[in-house]
Amino acid sequence: MYRRAVDRLLNSVAETQEFFRAGIVAIDITEDESFTGDRSGHEDEIIGTKGKTDEYAYQWATVQLVGDAVPIVLDARPVRRGESRKEIVEDLLDSAEDLVHVDNVLMDREFDSQHVLEMISQRGLSYVVPKRMQTSEKAQARRLLEHDRDRYATDRKLHLGKNEWHETTLIYRRKEDSEHDDHRQYSVFMTNRGSGHLTEYGHRWEIESGYKSIKRFMAATTSKDFGLRFFYFAFACLLYSIWRAVDLLVQVELTGEYEHSPIVTADNTLTLLKKETGIG
User: Fold this and answer.
1) C-beta neighbour count of 279 within 10 angstroms
2) Is the pTM of this model over 0.85?
3) What is the largest CA-CA distance in the chain?
4) Are residues 39 and 57 in contact, defined by beta-carbon separation less than 8 angstroms?
5) How far apart are CA 127 and CA 194, in angstroms?
6) 164: alpha, beta or left, given left = phi > 0 and alpha = psi -120 to 50?
7) Residue 2, SS3?
8) Beta bridge pairs of residue 28
């Protein structure tokens, strides 16, 4: 149902020259409101939080257009216990590629598995993903610090199993105004398309910003019911996407072009929705 609704939304905005059914996508996982106490019967769905706490939460994964494109959430799905990150990314990319032409995939470091990266490469897509620093990366960062180098790239083969390897490029980049005086001054990224794509990673923050706005559209509930919780989240993603699509259409009508900062507010959209449908 969600995918059909987004397809209709994309068809509407595709009528403008300012929207192209192509671009960069970001994939991430967010948490619903957390619970404490008993979760009997929900252990495979209310799987905990990313932080080390005694709280539990449903987790939802999304894929969203970022960059110069209108930030529409192309798909949303639950995260269930036992699912691999590869399964989640593969499912979301299947949806995204059915709707738009994907150029590049941005993810955070929880998706830095070589099997995820290999799957993306096998689809003919490029990626930029930060890498969790292990012993070898920390040692290399210390050497760069000793030689006062801001940037360094090196090819790396990641073992997939048996005699199979995934080839990637590790890019070390020194952080500006870092508060640390050791290897933590550096971030390490992996990409399969060279260092030129690294600048695009700055667009990934848009999915984090999007989550904050999406949660403004969510109905409040204390229910632990999986179906209700996911419906509220998916519906909020759709409302967010409608808001950004409406903003595109309004900007084009008023100015003839599209700027990423919205001129239509989320409150305007909610008011219009309530007026037209009675929802809200």
Assistant:
1) 11
2) yes
3) 64
4) no
5) 10
6) beta
7) helix
8) 62
Residue 146: Cβ within 10 Å count: 8
- The Cα 86–Cα 118 span in angstroms is 10
CA–CA separation, 102 vs 162, rounded Å? Answer: 31
Instruction: Give the separation between CA 269 and CA 83, rounded to whole angstroms.
Output: 36
Contact 242, 269 (CB under 8 A): yes
Count of C-beta atoms within a 10 Å radius of residue 49: 16
pLDDT tens track of the chain, all 280 residues?
Answer: 899 999 999 999 988 888 888 889 999 999 988 876 677 777 777 776 666 666 788 899 999 999 888 999 999 999 998 899 999 999 999 999 999 999 899 999 999 999 999 999 999 999 999 999 999 999 999 999 999 999 999 999 999 998 999 999 999 999 988 898 899 999 999 999 877 778 888 888 888 889 999 988 888 888 888 899 999 999 999 999 999 999 999 999 999 888 888 999 888 888 877 777 666 5
Separation between Cα atoms, residue 276 and residue 156, nearest integer Å: 55
